[in-house]
Amino acid sequence: MKKRALSMVAMAAAATMLVSACGSGNSGNGGDAQSVIDDKTGFASYTGEPQKGGVVEVLGGVDFSHLDPAMGSDGNVLNLYNLLYRNLTQYKYNRESGELELVGDLAEDTGTPNEDSTEWTFKLKEGVTFEDGSPITAEDVKFGFEHAFDPSLAIGLDYLQNYVKGAKDYEGVFKDPKGLDSIKVVDERTITIETNEPMADFPNVVATAPGAPFPKDKVTKVDQIQKDPISSGPYKVEEYKRGESLTLVRNENWKAETDDIRPAYPDGYKFTVSLDQNTIDQRMMSGQGDDANAVSSSTNPVVAANLAKITQDPKLSERTVQSIPSCNYFMVMNNTKEPLGDKKVRQAINWGVDKSSVVNASGGSQLADVAPNLLLPSVPQYDDTDPYATEGSKGDPEKAKAMLKEAGAENLKLTMDVRALPMWQAQAEAVQQSLKKIGIEVKLNVIDQAKFYEVLATPSQQNELAITGWCSNGWFSGEPLLGPLFDGERITKTGNLNQSQIDDPALNKALAEAAVMPDLDDKTAAYAKINEQVLDLAPVVPLVRPRPLQLAGSNVGGAFANPSKTGYIDYSQLGLLNPEG
């Protein structure tokens, strides 16, 4: 696979300058650390070179949704998975050049296709093992895939299930231990995977979390990995107290020479969850004791109220990282609920939303940009097309009201699902006020942080509206950004990512045709047109692209915004500047 340059990131890297960050006034780093400061934002683009040893703490408000990589899909849990699990391929990011490269992880390279890219062959590296020291074989990779296809587990990212031949109808390895004929073990280190259609970028698909291998002879129950993870990465679970903490320690059988993606600086990680957001900020800004060795989690960036204090104190801003805009936040409109099945009603709502108020609710223009559409600036050939553009992004209430009247949909009463996080609730309240101005009364249904995605991915539990988001995890293409969200053929009873439940034949056809295009440039152009097609159908209202802040303790190095980790700090690159401090 070719290296993928991210011009926006490269430009940001070029705009940085090196300055000394002498401990930020807190104990822990010995005063010799170097932070790279972005002279455009004033925040750190890198917090210095870590050393081996010590424990990195992560402070968060949200528990991890699932420890089984088949089941989780939010950015924070995917960031965690990278510490515990390895895949055939993975993304490697060069923060200085801004280059994101897909490379072999467990595999020696990114795979070899047949002539029409319907069959891909991967050869495993020598010496890769599970946490007990047993070798990872092609049979374990096959088992890992088929474990992830079990209907009771397949509620996470659906790319593998969507593209591996026969996976959609497979009942899972526990009901059908023979497995899929499309996944063939050639020998102990070689596996061949058939796709149900030509797939030029299938190596990106096998980089997704559900592709993690598990030992076939040691996993006998469908919920086993959820309760007792088996690591193939540099760390393993020592203790998990749901709702309280997760402790990781070194996987002594992980071999650094087989892994040039994860440097594994710390001896372990301690994740503390269920903390109040302002408590996290206050602890991180103070940086006392073990908090000097901590970062705030990617689910809990700095609240807007603390922005001024950080920007006015150089010792704080030089250990604050601003995320790359790798996510779109939007309002889902459930097309199966009347009158939202009417395109004119959905378009009217798009015209009526004041996006500038959602930017303010997200912390203001320093922390968020308006999202004009559903692609991202890092996607090749991106443009900022916005068919619902208004002056100052304030919406057009009069036009929206006229369209609703024409559609016979006045004085509506709708319910909006929202995640119990401060910024998300503030965004929901801003949209609630916009819709009130066009005659729509909205009731907010606040859902527990950890369970939100699971509820939203179950169509029978959805209400009419929802505030949610979708991020790129390194695969910057229209397929991961549009396919799962708007393909009617991918609607499922659980684990459903098409949460608007739009099922438009023409759109489905366009997505199907784009997916099999062998030329990546043609594919990119096709998804640009599909983006416009989705905007016209208006199943969602694009709202904002957040650029949130995460604080790192004064003794934490290796913190930078990684586009392959939804633009947040990559946990796997962290370490302590002075492990003895």
Automatic annotation (TrEMBL):
Origin: domain of life: Bacteria
Pfam families assigned: SBP_bac_5 (PF00496)
Coiled coil, from the record: none
Statement: the UniProt record of this protein carries the keyword Ligase: no
Domain Solute-binding protein family stretches: 101-488
Keyword Signal: yes
GO cellular component: ATP-binding cassette (ABC) transporter complex; periplasmic space
Range of residues in the leader sequence: 1-21
A GO molecular function held by the record: peptide transmembrane transporter activity
One BP annotation, GO: peptide transport
Keywords: Signal
Protein name as annotated: ABC-type transporter, periplasmic subunit
